[in-house]
Alpha-L-arabinofuranosidase C-terminal domain-containing protein (Sphingobacterium bambusae), 120 residues
Amino acid sequence: MQQLFGVNTGSAYIPTSVQIDQTNEGVRKRISFSVLEDSLSNSLIVKAVNVLPVEVQASVDLSGFTLAKGTIEKSTLSGELAARNVLPVHEQLHAEFLEQKQWILKPYSVTVFRFPLKEK
């Protein structure tokens, strides 16, 4: 997990709010998001953590960002809490992913998305 976060540090933190499909405060405390801009790769990095034993749907609004067309990189690390030697699964997503209203976060997971930004 340290490598997954270390490779996706970004250069600027962007304050963000996220809507989660749960009203239970105990559940909400176990879901976390952070958004960063990486000026070196000109990308937006969204990190999502789910420390619940069930999948969670989250609504993420990226309409305030000037995203470029291109491949979205997704890396997910998930498994039981006591699991050892778990490796991330890397996926390449297409622009249609942005049309989804809900993102599904696997149980006990860390997911990192990299979205290309338009040139400034």
In short: Residues 1 and 7 are 10 Å apart (CA to CA). The domain at 2-116 is CATH 2.60.40.1180 (Immunoglobulin-like).
